[in-house]
Specification:
membrane, 12 helices, globular, 3 strands, transmembrane
Length: about 400
């Protein structure tokens, strides 16, 4: 996301520079654009980018990461006297059954009035609700808790972007960039693990760079990171390769290709295929790989750090902490298997909610930008669009 924002920012700045000078695109008429209009449009776009980034970080990274480690429904016995009778409890509960009046057990119970009635409380996971998760984070870590781990995330993303640029060189071939991304993100596995530890743990007095684990832990987390990075690129690239290998999309770069009406429907069908393939790969590959990485990293959380949501460090007895002589981490297969079906369903529901929120934000800001463009440029909007198209095509 950081790489995308930087590239779009540079492209927008270059495009605006080209629009502010007289351009000979289209019908050879110079296009004069008001700097104030450009400034307003740029400010709106900047707010849009920052807002979408904040939404994506909180709802697309922080909350799903917590969901991946939170234990399923927990149970506890609570004295009935501790529960307010004026308000119904916000949980499902089963009270201990009372014996029939006059029975032997009833007599025994009346003889021992010191033993309080107990209520079996089943607490729902915090991450079952986005609102509840935000309120929980705010209560435990303050108002800015929705951006917890941001410093570590920015450093990790920036260094990753630099390494990808170095490893891919000047090549613009997508497959080379994908390979460079896999290598770079695997090398930075400890930074990624540090970000996960910051997100899932209670607030710490340590600075973000003090949370980075020793590089000796890299062999333990590298396999899970490599798996995650590989599936990331497969989900991004494979649908484009498949849909672009046949039909109308295959000929889009051919200057002699002259599409007609039927090609429009063919492109729409191929786009739908690409969307379906992306969704399928995301559910079958990306989610399991992400869960595996997060849970393997969580199994190596230092003993002095407490998680901000309920978390079973033993993964149901499948791993032993290093402090008592265990390996101190869970394996790739067990990391996924220990993630219950109830938790998987909860995570998928969360991702659907996040997708709907993101789509709603995109639609809202698109409408705002279109309305602003009509108000700011008026009748010259068509010429401005031609100028932007010409500059984008030559770049």
């Amino acid at each position: 996301m950081i790489d995308h924002i930087f590239r779009r920012g540079f492209h927008t700045a270059h495009t605006m520079h080209g629009m502010m000078v007289d351009s000979d695109q289209g019908d050879d008429k110079p296009v004069q654009v008001s700097p104030i209009a450009l400034l307003v449009l740029f400010a709106t776009s900047l707010v849009f980018v920052l807002f979408i980034f904040g939404i994506g970080y909180t709802y697309g990274h922080v909350i799903p990461t917590l969901c991946m480690i939170e234990s399923s429904e927990t149970e506890a016995y609570v004295p009935v006297s501790n529960i307010e009778s004026t308000e119904p409890p916000a949980y499902s509960a089963t009270a201990t059954p009372k014996p029939a009046r006059g029975s032997r057990q009833d007599v025994d119970d009346e003889a021992d009035m010191d033993e309080p009635d107990l209520l079996l409380v089943r607490n729902k996971p915090i991450t079952a609700s986005i609102r509840q998760t935000i309120l929980h984070l705010r209560a435990r870590a303050g108002f800015l808790s929705r951006f917890r781990g941001m410093s570590m995330y920015l450093v990790w993303s920036f260094v990753s972007m630099i390494l990808i640029s170095i490893f891919s060189g000047a090549s613009g071939v997508r497959i080379y960039i994908a390979f460079a991304a896999i290598v770079s993100q695997t090398l930075l596995a400890t930074l990624h693990m540090a970000w996960i530890h910051i997100v899932i743990s209670e607030p710490s007095e340590k600075r973000w760079y003090q949370r980075i684990p020793s590089y000796r832990t890299w062999p333990k987390i590298a396999p899970a990171t490599a798996l995650w990075a590989t599936t990331n690129q497969v989900v991004s690239i494979l649908p484009m390769l498949v849909t672009g290998s046949f039909g109308s999309l295959k000929h889009m770069n051919n200057p002699e290709y002259e599409p007609d009406k039927k090609d429009l429907y063919a492109v729409g069908a191929q786009a739908f295929l690409g969307m379906f393939l992306t969704l399928a790969l995301f559910l079958l590959l990306q989610i399991p790989a992400s869960v595996t990485l997060v849970r393997v990293a969580a199994s190596m959380l230092p003993e002095e750090d407490e998680t901000i949501v309920p978390f079973d460090r033993t993964f149901g007895g499948k791993t032993t902490p290093a402090i008592v002589g265990g390996q101190g981490k869970i394996g790739l297969v067990e990391a996924w298997r220990s993630f219950s079906w109830a938790s998987r369903t909860r995570l998928v529901r969360l991702m659907i909610k996040v997708a709907l929120i993101s789509i709603a934000c995109w639609v809202l800001f698109t409408m705002v930008l279109v309305a602003e463009a009509h108000l700011l440029f008026g009748d010259s909007l068509g010429e401005v669009m031609k100028t932007v198209h010409g500059i984008g095509r030559h770049n």
